[in-house]
Amino acid sequence: MNRLWGKIRRGLNTKFGFFMLITGLFWIKSYIAYQTKFTLGVQGGMQELILAISPLGFAILLFGIGLYIRGKWSYWYMIIMDAILSVWLFANILYYREFSDFITFNLIKGSGAASDNLGKSLMGILRPTDFLVFVDVLFVVAILVFGFVKIDKSKFKLVNSFAVTILSIGVLAANLALAYSNRSGLLTRTFDNNYIVKYLGLQSFTLYDGVKTVQNSNKKKEAKGSQLNPIKKFIKDNDIPANIEYKGVAKGKNVIIIHLESLQQFVINKKWKGKEITPNINKFYNDKNTLAYDNFFNQVGQGKTADAEMMLENSLFGLPEGSAMVTDGTTNTFQAMPAIMDQQGYSTAAFHGDVSSFWNRDNAYKSFGYQYFFSKQYYTLKKGYVSGYGMKDKLFLQQSAEYLEQLPQPFYAKLITVSNHYPYGIEKKNVSIDPWDTGDSTVDPYVQTAHYLDQSIGELLSYLKKTGLYDKSMIMMYGDHYGISNNHKPAIAKILGLKGVTNYDLAMFQKVPFMIHAPGLKGGVNHNYSGEIDVMPTLLGLLGIDTPGAYHFGHDINSKQFNQIVAFRNGDFVSEKYTKYGGDLYYTATGEQITDETAAQKAEIKKIQTYVNTELGYSDKIINGDLLRFADLDWFKKVNKSDYSYNKKSALKQLEEAEKKSKTSLIDQNDGKSTLDDYKTDAPELESNQNKSSSSSSSSDDQSSSDSSSSSSASSSADK
Ligand code: GP9
Ligand code: MN
């Protein structure tokens, strides 16, 4: 025993030994902090392994630099590095506790989004155990100061230092490879900062964030206001008049947006084994006061939901890579729908049963001007309430009513569902329709989660009717993007009853539902070829809100002169006459392929392509260059991000005050009584959980920020 102890001490008296000690302690400490101070949503053995490895690469790299340094300076360097990394970890722990997110350079630069009085509330959120992150630093200082370990002044061979550096790069590369095998597109698709920390550790995240921030701010530095001129001209040249039949028919009404996760148009009015897949949505779709669009396409890129939101709230496209809400949502200036509605006297709120950091909503929504963002931490979570990316729809919508009834009217409210999300996991107790029988296990349960989503919408609509909100609101529903990706052609063919699937079929498979209901609205089905970029101008038309000079790339679909050109994010398109998809050309009406274009066709197609490329390119210019900061519109007041706080306590207080002041909430109209009893749900979780109560945000067992690929093979990650 004594001999072993002696050996260890002798080892620690060498520079390499000290390096091993400081690296090892930092590694262990970081791992413990990841496990106990953050809710990263680690699932399964592989993710556990990756998390365990993640602090190591950078620790070896950064402390290993000390081995190149001579004498006592080497020790100084390692200790200072340890202290810096620990302070950074400490700061992130505190920030995370308040915001469930990590510190980014954009926040440090003072974009305002971080100014939720963190400084003032710091004392309130500190926990004694937070200081444990400094224990190892104090320990290594102490053993040096008290002479337990002697400083080794001998030179450490350069080749050995180099070997350590190479080792660190090897560990980092292995970490990255493992991360990518479990979650493809980790760094390009930019889902959630939590993901990057979970897979690559805090240091890698900071480095990644730093590189992105520099790249991004360089692009913005070069941008000039004059770049808006050609864009202004393009938008003006393509401007179309509103349809007076529809203009302003929903003026002053509440706006309720229901985001139907991954719902595709082809399930509408369709049966499976004699049962309607979406009976409630069908009823809404076929209502005489519902205006539906059956040639409406999703236009998202990698940012999926986030791209859909970007288009809907801004009439700007997502970026060709990643999610614009993540890369630019914190810092850019927007003239978004919530801010416009706010300036029209509306209250504005987004509701989502996932963690607020996903797709950077916690920051982007402030830039869009949302007064409230009711995310997962606002909801009561009990065991079994969460599945996949957030709360199960029935429970989410039911609990959302609690906030909806408090909002001063008129309000603009967006409810984002999530249960119908890849990989379409649903427990038996929530299933009430058979799975499809294509034999593709990814595709088959889709019909079941879609059916569940529909039931949850049915429950919400009943509540809205019962409380009278239905008649005071313009209710819009839309599917954000495909649920069944193009990787499942045989299954798609079987579901659609086709022999095989062409690129034309795949293009048409990108249709998603879009429908608007308002009392007095002349219903029917509009067949215009249109897409998500057109939603905002269409809604503004119905609300009778003019936005002259606004930088919108979409158009009011109800206009008689609507241009019917739908751009996909990769430059493919659907137009009234031609469809281009995956490099093939078709007649849109018939699906017949065009192989030999005539000169006249070539010219027509070129014109459409030029339009598509121009709108995508200009939209990217606006986002990449943050050009809207130069756009002064006399009817729009710039959003001040620091006006908003999504801190639960302060937001609820603010809501209470707003309600008191306006006296227009549903509760007020119900003589001060809550309407929650009017909300009926058959969610089975409510019965089985009645006695087992726990509270909301801190429940880590239900961490929804989990990624789907963890429960499926890596090859299917393209679905996500
Ligand atoms: C996550 C949810 C899913 O919060 O909106 O996003 P998606 O994977 O569909 O882009
Ligand atoms: Mn989605």
Automatic annotation (TrEMBL):
Residues annotated as binding Mn(2+): E261, T305, D480, H481
Pathway as given in its UniProt record: Cell wall biogenesis; lipoteichoic acid biosynthesis
SUPFAM superfamilies listed in its UniProt record: Alkaline phosphatase-like
MF term (GO), any: transferase activity
Residue segments, region Disordered: 658-720
Gene3D superfamilies: 3.30.1120.170, Alkaline Phosphatase, subunit A
Keyword terms of this UniProt record: Cell membrane, Manganese, Membrane, Metal-binding, Transferase, Transmembrane, Transmembrane helix
Location within or outside the cell: Cell membrane
UniProt topology in membrane: Multi-pass membrane protein
Binding site for substrate: H421
Predominant place of localization: membrane
UniProt-annotated catalytic positions: T305
Extent of Basic and acidic residues compositional bias: 670-683
Alphabetized InterPro entries for the sequence: Alkaline_phosphatase_core_sf, LtaS-like, OpgB/LTA_synthase_biosynth, Sulfatase_N
Pfam name, any one: Sulfatase
Ranges that cross the membrane: 12-29, 49-69, 76-96, 131-149, 161-180
Sulfatase N-terminal domain span: 253-545
One Gene Ontology cellular component: plasma membrane
Family, per entry: Belongs to the LTA synthase family.
Name recorded for this polypeptide: LTA synthase family protein
Organism: Pediococcus stilesii
